[in-house]
């Protein structure tokens, strides 16, 4: 059989094991379902969609609703099947051979992975020991690598904190190309870059329905960015890539903003309770502004803890293979009873060590 592209042989795909266990705290999904009213309305959509017709190619109603939600122009919104497809479309359009993306590790692995898949080369700079990157490090990295695209992640997955605002501003000032801020977890955090998009021709903010909107199964994400960027992305993305059903489901979700915020508030509260419980169980826990916590078990190897947790029916994310995260694991904030089960299992595993 014909081999895949030669350059693809060099790297692994992106895998988070989908193991069937009682407590799944490994992919930062919402533990709470979307509102019942939304589920009912979505059920009704099955009858409403004109299934024999192609969807609205420009997804106007969904983009209009998102624009209204964020107080921007409809022309500044691009929608796709999850924010990963948004990122892929950005890279297909502005990356590719002879182009370079800059990432600050450790960060979301798909930024570099999708870069490579699209033939974009990847330059890497390091975050400091707090997992932040300061403005001067940004300048230095831009000078050294002269990237076409700079990726930030705010809050940063898997480390938890928002980017230093001065660092992003520095990139907007000094980078030649696009500055992408992945805000998959922004609703959990006090700051967003969306308000800044209108005053920059380089800034692209990426959002998703997968986390705060409790809609990971739906695969829906978007970017808020300058209208010229949207136009170029539309030229590259496949025609009719976003199906009618999903477009309408997204519009319906935006009618439940209050419920979304209430879910976020519950998770944030639970995050602080969980962080305290983990710390008092002896783990080193990093501060987080998202719906997950990065931690390092003390006195026992992280990989052993990961396996011990799994044997006790709790799945967390093994970050030990990620660049710059030796012996770290990441746990998603779940329901109170799931978090309790996790803390019990963590105590068990570390005590047995
Ligand atoms: C979870 C996550 C996403 C979400 O991707 P979707 O394709 O929208 O599900 C994007 N970026 C980051 C940093 C994430 O953690």
Could you walk me through the main structural features you see in this protein, from its secondary elements to its overall organization?
With 353 residues, this protein is α/β, with parallel strands linked by helices. Helices cover 39% and strands 16% of the residues. It has helices spanning 36-48, 60-70, 82-94, 109-117, 135-145, 165-174, 227-236, 244-253, 257-280, 302-311, 336-352, and strands spanning 23-25, 77-80, 100-105, 121-126, 149-153, 178-182, 203-208, 221-224, 284-285, 292-296, 314-318, 329-332. The strands form two sheets. A seven-stranded mixed beta sheet has the order 2-8-7-6-5-3-4, with helices on both faces. Strands 1-11-12-10-9 form a five-stranded mixed beta sheet. Helix 1 (36-48) packs antiparallel against helix 8 and helix 9 packs parallel to helix 11 (336-352). The chain is globular and about 60 Å long. The chain starts with 22 loop residues before the first strand and ends with a helix. The mean pLDDT is 95. The structure holds pyridoxal-5'-phosphate. Pyridoxal-5'-phosphate binds next to helix 3.
